[in-house]
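Journal club prep, notes for RB
We'll compare a predicted complex against what the paper describes. Inputs for the nicotinamide-adenine-dinucleotide case:
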Amino acid sequence: MSSAKYEVHGSTAVITLDNPPVNGLGYDLRVGIVAGIDKASADPAVTAVVMIGNERAFSGGADIREFGLPKAYALPNLPAVIQIVENCPKPVVAAISGVCMGGGFELTLGAHFRIAKPDAKIALPEVKLGLIPGAGGTQRGPRILGVEGALNLMVKGDPVPASAFKGTPLIDEFVEGDLLPAALAFADKVVAEQRPIRRISEMKVDYPNHEAYLQFARNMIKGVAGPFPAPAKCADAIAASLTKSFAEGMKVERELFIGLMGTPESRALRHLFAAERAASKIPDIPDDTPVRTIAKVGVIGAGTMGGGISMNFLNAGIPVTMLEMKQEALDKGVAIIRKNYENSMKKGKLTQEKLDQRMGLLGTTLSYDDFKDCDLIIEAVFEDIGVKEAVFRKLDEIAKPGAILASNTSTLDVNKIANFTQRPQDVVGMHFFSPANVMKLLEVVRGAATAKDVMATVMQVAKKIRKTAVVSGVCDGFIGNRMIEHYGRVAGFLLEEGATPAQVDKALEKWGMAMGPFRMGDLAGNDIGWAIRKRRYVEKPNIKYAKFADKLCEQGRYGQKTGKGWYLYKAGERKAIPDPEVDAMLVEYRKELGITPRKISDAEIVERCIYALVNEGARIVEEGIAARASDIDMIYLTGYGFPMFRGGPMLYADEMGLYNVARRMQAFAASSGDAFWEPAPLIAKRVAEGRSLT
Ligand code: NAD
């Protein structure tokens, strides 16, 4: 079935793109457009053609449902379609409304005229997938937008309202009212005035002294592109438009595009794009599962997490009531929220009006009675099972039927918490990360009894408060912290063997991690890890730990909050200063253990720490705690400062070759005697099958 509709209005043929939700340029739609152009060309009664979408979208570009399938490249591919549109002997008008992005925008550049709603969103976002436009955008773009205009659009990749192009030849007319009648009237005008057909590919790009500008642009790009190669390739493609014929320029575009497709950075970004979409889907919960209404939220605890969690809802316009045991705690919590907003205002990110609006949505209480009409209640009290029990028993008494009861616990058993109530089906974990108003990640912890509609509701709420939600089953540490424990554990052994905290952190930071394990420990508080280890020594005595971290904690070196940890901190500052005292303690400690220190390379540091994440991640997938390997990558990219250009630990393992990764793990198992390093059965299985993890 064609997903382009063809109708004739008067003497104008109208091709309506019709491929919901965003008119992705899938195979059927491409075929439909070509058929429409052919029909219009052959019909003597037709004098002009209008291509139009709908209110929501002219076209969002490539159809993501075809990604990775032969259909995506099947002829007529997009460059061919655009060429056919451009070659049409009758004037073609693109009528643009809603989203007009990527291939969708490139398609409009094949038309001879463009009219647009001022608020249509125009973008060439390919750079966000590590690519450049690949359907002529880099060659037609500078011809119609000018070199600077096109380069800006391509390098930034952000949507720009069509109104921003007023005064440029890109848009011939802006339309405030209904688009179709305006497009038909415009087409009639073009015909009546016998306006010459303007094919962008036949235009010249004129930019005197372009070498100087391109040099300047390349320098700018270097400063912002980081490890990603695509932005610089945008400049290369634009350079071709200046020095070569259109046809030659198209060849350059194609070569650059294909080259970028093969880079690990682009693979990482495309993986992230797909992973984000996948993470929002829960295999046994259909998209159309009815959700509960969340109009009012209660938050218990106005501490570090409670305050940040509340801000998320206030920002989304959802009223929140915070509950505490004492008025002072409430006052302190509210003051911190206000201060955060005031800081945003000082930075120009928030207006006074918005600040007042958000603070106006915040209520406080000392009584559970005020939670009676809450649809969602999130607990963020002390991490103590006794305290959680008291809170959930109370919630069970007072919450209205159907209210969702969520815990922000990081380490406790959500099933146990659910069973403190008579309604475990309504209980779920909502594990926010600190600072909760900033960090994108939300682990949604699905208890054994959590109802499907509760999961669906929480996933939808997460979107509303702009979090990246990833579902985790119940296990110690859930997904992210369960993995990070092994990363930290392995880093501890590196110290025993001869590395310093600063060397380990630097190696991992140079590789791309936002923060090495020791700086991270100092930030989070080393006492947290210490408490977990003490529990492990009793509950899981077979897990091996280097004991040096305990020695540090015994001296009260908890990190930033005590001014000392793995590093030294000046009062009020966060800069980690390597501490010779810690290095000396390490020397002494190794002596006690009879270890002769050796020089450890940065490459070994990275391999051991990152492969520790990979191995535990694979176990998590295998156990079904994570639904898919890409969920793990989402968690690490959004919650743990894993470098975006590497795509997450699981994709990284695939990039390194799972076979090679497994061999390194076996070597670590042999040299350390640590059973943890035996490759997870899932890894062994995938290696045997010649498959990857993601
Ligand atoms: P916090 O000590 O800063 O805040 C806890 C607040 O809860 C305090 O203000 C306290 O007065 C209040 N409180 C304690 N018992 C209460 C009760 N019975 N009724 C009402 N209020 C009560 O702690 P936090 O760091 O915000 O941690 C809260 C929860 O969030 C814990 O479960 C923790 O594991 C989890 N968590 C913390 C982080 C983090 O980085 N801090 C990250 C994720 C999850």
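Talking point for the session: The mean pLDDT is 96.
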